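User: Sequence recovery, please. Input:
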């Protein structure tokens, strides 16, 4: 991206709450990141940290009791939060598509998969007839490496394997050639061999279509293989961002360091698995301090009372940790078991 070119997607100070019988769940607080054109950004963190809520917020798919409280989601310079529902329907599936988790749960069980892919095209191009849409659906399935796509389009989702359903879902989301693809754990329900195939297919298609990708995952290996930049989330907040190499090779937030230590060492299979001490804090409490403080080996008194800003480090590397306040980058920091 040139210095004068604006990012395709820019999220600023996004805040999302869920109003439950137990109280207000502060699901997202001050979430901010940008995604450049033809770039893949990985959004990573533990289950429940807010990755999927962030993705659904971009598409304005937060249903009651959830509510987007504040923030700005600029797509091609246009604030999506200011659009009416009719305008958003023209963007969903056309300019921004999303691969949901559990493809068999996302596909309609009583409609043939070919019709579901064709319907996506017809909704966004009223001049297209059903025959032409079906032909494009078959062509897209062929691009995904599916043998005999003419036969597959006549199948129902329950007649297909998990990997095949995932390919159908990818075809459905990419057939309109969107500018932004949100992939929410696209390989979580698949075995390792199929995972590799699906990731390779996604990468090939986004190169061909020139699509930007927001890759949501808790798998650091997937993130390392597919992403240009990464953003690490913890308890509804961004804690570290930067290029995939800088974040994974030189993590600057204690939480990121802990995450990387949880990855098993293949060269030492007998080594005990590392776990980050403590539990994720309740999101029912407003964020007035560092949420990682109760689990952090380097906690200071101010961490319990103040919210750390994102400190700018080398290049585009940023970390929300008071250890960087006036000290620059932490070097060779290790978290004890």
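Assistant: Recovered sequence (337 residues):
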């Amino acid at each position: 991206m040139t210095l004068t070119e604006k990012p395709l997607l820019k999220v600023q100070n996004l805040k999302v709450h869920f109003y439950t019988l137990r109280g207000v769940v502060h699901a997202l607080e001050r979430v901010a990141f940008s995604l450049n054109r033809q770039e893949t950004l990985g959004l990573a963190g533990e289950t429940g940290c807010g990755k999927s809520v962030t993705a659904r917020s971009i598409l304005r798919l937060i249903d009651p009791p959830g509510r987007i409280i504040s923030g700005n989601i600029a797509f091609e310079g246009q604030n999506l939060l200011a659009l009416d529902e009719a305008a958003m329907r023209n963007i969903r599936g056309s300019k921004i598509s999303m691969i949901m988790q559990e493809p068999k749960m996302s596909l309609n069980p009583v409609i043939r998969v070919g019709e579901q892919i064709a319907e996506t095209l017809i909704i966004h191009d009223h001049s297209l007839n059903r025959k032409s849409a079906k032909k494009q659906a078959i062509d897209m399935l062929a691009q995904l490496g599916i043998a005999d796509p003419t036969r597959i389009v006549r199948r129902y989702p329950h007649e297909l394997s998990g990997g095949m359903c995932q390919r159908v879902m990818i075809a459905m989301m990419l057939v309109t050639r969107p500018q932004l693809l949100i992939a929410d754990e696209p390989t979580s329900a698949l075995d390792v061999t199929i995972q590799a195939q699906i990731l390779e297919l996604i990468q090939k298609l986004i190169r061909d279509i020139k699509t930007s990708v927001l890759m949501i995952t808790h798998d650091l290996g997937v993130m390392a293989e597919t992403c240009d930049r990464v953003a690490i989330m913890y308890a509804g907040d961004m804690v570290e961002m930067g290029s995939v190499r800088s974040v994974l090779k030189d993590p600057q937030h204690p939480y990121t360091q802990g995450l990387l230590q949880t990855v098993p060492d293949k060269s030492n299979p007998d080594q005990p698995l590392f776990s980050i001490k403590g539990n994720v804090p309740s999101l029912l409490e407003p964020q007035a301090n560092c949420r990682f403080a109760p689990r952090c080996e380097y906690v200071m008194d101010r961490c319990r009372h103040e919210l750390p800003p994102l400190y700018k480090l080398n290049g585009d590397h940023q970390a929300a940790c008071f250890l960087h306040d006036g000290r620059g980058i932490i070097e060779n920091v290790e978290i004890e078991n």
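The two ends are 41 Å apart (CA to CA).
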